[in-house]
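Suppose you are handed a protein chain with no further information: no name, no annotation, nothing but its sequence. What can you learn? This example shows the usual starting point.
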Amino acid sequence: MRDGLVSSGSMAMKLRHWWQFTVADLRGPRGFRGTLLDRIPAGAKRVDRRWWIYAALYLLIAVGIWLRVEHIFSHNPMDHIWSDPQRHWEQGTETLRRDPMTMTDPVMYQVYIGVLAKLTLGEPFLVALYTALLACLTPWIWYRFARELMPGRLQATAVWAALSLLPSWIAIYSYFMQETLLLPLLGASLYASWRCRRKQTLSSFLLMVTLWTFAGLTRGIAIPLAAVVTTWLWLVQPRKLAKAGYSLALLALLMGPLAYRSHAAMHMISPHGIGQLVALYLRSGKREIHVHYSREGAQWNYWFGSPSTGEKPLAPLSDWTTERDGQVHARIHIENGAEDWAKALARYPLTLERYLSLTRENLIYLFFGSSWPDNNRERLLEKISHHSRWLWAPLTLLLLIGTALYWRRLQGARLFAVVLGTWVVVQGVLPIAVNEGRYRKPAEGMLLVQALLVAAAVRRRSAASGRRGMRDSFDEPADAPFAIHTPNGQAVPPVLTQVEVSREQREKDDALA
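A reasonable first move is to predict its three-dimensional structure. Written in C-alpha cells, the prediction is:
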C-alpha cells in the first residue's frame, strides 16, 4: 500500500516537472508570441503576409456575394412592379408594343427583360435566381477590367472586394431598372477597351465597339464615353483604315435596323430612343411634364415628374429644394416627326442664366440626391446607400485634384481619368436631363477604381523620393554605377539576383497593401 502511494507521488512529481520545463521552453525569453514569431522563417512571414491580405479580400468578396443573394431573394424584383419598374417590365414582356413611350426608352433593357421573362415565365424564384447571378457577376466583370488596367492582381482584387460590398450596387438589383444591365455592360466595355489597348488587333477593336454599342443602347450616358475611348485607341493604334471600315460596317449592321424601326414608328431616325421628351422637361424648368401624342386617330397621354423634385437632397444640413413649379405641356403629332418637338423646345430658349440655374440644380441632384427607387430606409442596405451619398462629391473633388497633380505618374491609366472626367462633364454639366441620384451609380465604380490608381501613383512617388534620398547619401555621384569591391580592391559589376527581382515585383504588386 505504501509502495503504491510513493510510486504515485513520484509519477506526479515527474509530470509536474515535465510540464514546467515544456511551458518554459515554449515561452522562451520573449514570451509565447515572440518565440513563435522567431521560429517562423523570414520568407514564410512575407508569404503569409500576402496570403492573409488575399484571404481578407476574398472573405469580403464572399460576404458581398452573400449580401447580394440574400437581398435579392428577400426583396424580389417581382414584388416591385410599379412606376418605372412596371414600365420596364411591360415593355420587355409585351414585345410587339409600338406606343410612344416604348419607343422613347432605349431598346437594350427591353430585350434583356424579354429574355428574362421568357426564361423564367415570371416565376419569382427564377427571376431572383437569374438576377442574383447578374448581380454577382457585375463586380467580377469590373475585376477583369481592373486586371487589364492595374499593374498587379492585388489592386484588382481590392476593386472586386470594394464593388462587391458597395451598397448602392446591391440594392438596385431588387428593382427592374436600367442600371442593373448598364453596370455589367459598362464594366465589360471598359475591359474590352483596355484589352484592345494591350492587344491592338482588329478583332479586339471590333469586340470593344460591339460592347460599347450595347452599353449605349442601354443608357445614353455610355455613348460619349464610348466616343472618347474608341477615338483615343483608334488614333494611337495601327491599321486605322481597316478598324474604321469594319467598325462603321458593324455599327450600320447594329444601328441600321433600329433606325428604320424608330422611323417606322415615330417618323424620326433615333435608334437609341427618343430623347426630346427629357430634354423638354429639363429646359422647361417645370415640376411635371404632360405629353399628348396622336397618330392616325390613336392617342396617348403621359405625364411624369422626376423623383428628385420631391426631395431635399441636402437635408439635414439644408432645406434646399428645387425651384421647379408648374407643368409643361406638349402636343406631338407623330406624323410630323421632330417638327412638333422643335416647336415645344423653342418655347424655352436656353439662355446663360437658365443654363447656370439648371446646371447648379443638376449637380446637386447628381452628387447628393438619393437614389430612387432603391432608397427604402426601412431596409439596412438601402439606408446605408442613402447616407453614403455624402461621400461621392468630396471624393470626386479630391480625385480631380489628385489626378491633376499626379498626371505624369498615372501613365497607362490616363485614358481612364479622361473617361471619368467625360462622365462628370456630360452627366453633370451638359443640359441633357433632370439628374437623379440613380444616375450616379456608374461613376461610383469608376471613382473607386480611380481612387486606387491615384493612391498607387502617390506611393510610387513616395518610393521614388525614398530611393533618391538613399542614392544621395552615398559619397559617389548620383549617376555613378553602384559597385561592390572585393578585399583585393577589384570592383565587381552589380548583379541583380532573382530574390531582388521577385521582391521588387512583389512590392509593385502590393502597392496598396
